[in-house]
Amino acid sequence: xxxxxxxxxxxxxxLLVLLWGLGWWCRMxxxxxxxxxxxRRNVAPGTHVxxxxxxxxxxxxxxxxxxxxxKGDTVVASxxxxxxxxxxxxxLLDQPHTATVRAASDSAIYEIDDAASFLREQPEVALLIARxxxxxxxxxxxxxxxxxxQYAGHGNHLAMxxxxxxxxxxxxxxxVSPGSDRQSxxxx
Length: 188
Description:
This protein has helices spanning 2-35, 88-93, 115-121, 123-151, 161-170; strands at 39-43, 48-50, 59-64, 67-71, 74-79, 85-86, 100-103, 107-112. It is an alpha+beta fold. The strands form two sheets. It has a four-stranded antiparallel β-sheet. A hairpin with a 2-residue loop joins strand 4 (67-71) and strand 5 (74-79). Helix 1 (2-35) packs antiparallel against helix 4 (123-151). The longest helix is centred in the N-terminal third of the chain and has 34 residues, at 2-35. It is globular and about 55 Å long.
């Protein structure tokens, strides 16, 4: 019974992401138009575009190919959509990159050196990125709310999801250092 609920919830989340992704795909391709004239870079398989913990101040936009997003030593995503933006969280938060991005195949990217200026000069791109980030947050919140509902009153570590949701809503705009089991965020 419990497993069936988890599977249903996961399917709903995946469908939401897929339906949202169809509309976003068209908008992501629109970003490529704004990048024409910026530095185009060819990236060989295995080459790191972004290093977790590093700072570049750059935005990267996939033209073609396949990139992998790596958090720690785990591949968390594969990016193949032309117009996909990378490095936006680091630029917007003025913090080091939160993941490594590596080419998984021959790829081409636009590299925008002064990303903050680019976003000020191209508010349409900034709005598209804001919508993408809001959508990611919406999917995460929906998923966490579903876990909270399923595990309310169980008394295990999943029951603390409500505390996580509350802390996400009340976070002050400060420098954030995401934690893990080994390193907790003292504000939570």
